[in-house]
Amino acid sequence: xxxxxxxxxxxxxxxxxxxxxxxxxxxxxxxxxxxxxxxxxxxxxxxxxxxxxxxxxxxxxxxxxxxxxxxxxxxxxxxxxxxxxxxxxxxxxxxxxxxxxxxxxxxxxxxxxxxxxxxxxxxxxxxxxxxxxxxxxxxxxxxxxxxxxxxxxxxxxxxxxxxxxxxxxxxxxxxxxxxxxxxxxxxxxxxxxxxxxxxxxxxxxxxxxxxxxxxxxxxxxxxxxxxxxxxxxxxxxxxxxxxxxxxxxxxxxxxxxxxxxxxxxxxxxxxxxxxxxxxxxxxxxxxxxxxxx
Amino acid sequence: xxxxxxxxxxxxxxxxxxxxxxxxxxxxxxxxxxxxxxxxxxxxxxxxxxxxxxxxxxxxxxxxxxxxxxxxxxxxxxxxxxxxxxxxxxxxxxxxxxxxxxxxxxxxxxxxxxxxxxxxxxxxxxxxxxxxxxxxxxxxxxxxxxxxxxxxxxxxxxxxxxxxxxxxxxxxxxxxxxxxxxxxxxxxxxxxxxxxxxxxxxxxxxxxxxxxxxxxxxxxxxxxxxxxxxxxxxxxxxxxxxxxxxxxxxxxxxxxxxxxxxxxxxxxxxxxxxxxxxxxxxxxxxxxxxxxxxxxxxxxxxxxxxxxxxxxxxxxxxxxxxxxxxxxxxxxxxxxxxxxxxxxxxxxxxxxx
Lengths: 293, 353
Prior knowledge:
heterodimer
């Protein structure tokens, strides 16, 4: 057996995923070509740094997210992946003492430019969190449509939108008979798909997913991964994951982040196939083959 | 795994529970302590109920300590001693409350009858037989005072809590300190403040709304602190999810955080009401004590339950005293009902109907 699969993280997936090395899994995917999609110019990070108070958490990350692709951010804990993803929709500034430098361009315009309406940015760049967090006071239907209410948007036909979003999140058939019940009664995986449906209802151009499966069982994880694959044609997806098999299964591009005790940096980015089968940097190779991390 | 015999299920036991022997031992220790307290009170100049209680308490602690020491050594004895002390502290804390409830019931229940809730005192004196006249004006007055105090204090209290937990500006610390300090303000101070700030310079007479203002001053810290604790329990994830969906902070708080905390906020409100429903000092100063029904808080003397009780006690005859106890009983019942409502609403799980 190849050494890669023995040491790979996320062994919980082994029963449901194809057996084989990470590079095999990655190679089995059909690589999407950048820019083959009418989803705008896309999202670009240019020399992004981030701080928490005095602590320099992320240093000089430049990364392009091509429209209609899935980009996975991998790396050990504390390497700045989550910090980075939160700079992409300006959730980073929510943490007291946070600071940043650099530019994040959405369709060519800097989202940190003065005068930019931050709520509009977050509508275009949606987010799914690590822990499923449906709104406890709302029913399933209200949860999905919550974004419209929060952002004061109008929908042509709410029922159609509700069905469409739940369908895209792969949840419609499971909940269509109980849309009026509270979201808290769903299983963890269903709750997370409800959160995905909720994020889709405001029609984001980009969807950020911060370890969306880390709190879920393998079956639910697989459902979410299917959802991600189905969504990737219509939404640009950025996913942070600790599970390298997941990165290999769902992503077109992979970026490896690492912190050598100082601020986190992006070591290498490339097509997922390249990162898992022929990484250029030795540190990437050590990580994806499980020699450390 | 392959056998088909049905496994026999053993009867459930509790091996850790006290055995009959243990219970007999505890009973014996209690009995000996009672005997000792009886003997000591009989033999020494110590007299009275308090002496019995004190001697019994000390005797019980000593014997219990000695028995556990012999049986299981020093750590177990200290553990047992500590448990006895804690139990005693609870007993001491609860005794006055139960005593108050029992006394009020014993003295007040024969003053209770139907006309209390249907009649007021406009054509009766406190010294009339108990079945004439009633509390209606006082109940109406107390409700009006409390409702207007609520209208003033609940929005201020909840918005303060939202400032403290959601906005967290530069003034968070000083305001938090101020709110905590304010919850210790004696009610007479709140009463005198309104008296000096409103009654003397402006109205120059008693009315209901002045009482409500004073009660609001007392309610705001309770509502704000309880609401703050409730809002702190709402996970930060929900706030982030609200904002990540393109809501402004205000809409995220109003549509996500506050609804999630709804039952807790209702509890905060009711605790505030219960805090002020029986307040007497500011009421005596500010609202007057009419015996006639008055539905207008903005003009005229307004009767209230605390005022009724105070007047009835002042009248001094046996009928009046019985009225006073009945008034206290009704007031206590209202407060107990409110607290129960707060518990029931507070325990209800968020998101379940």
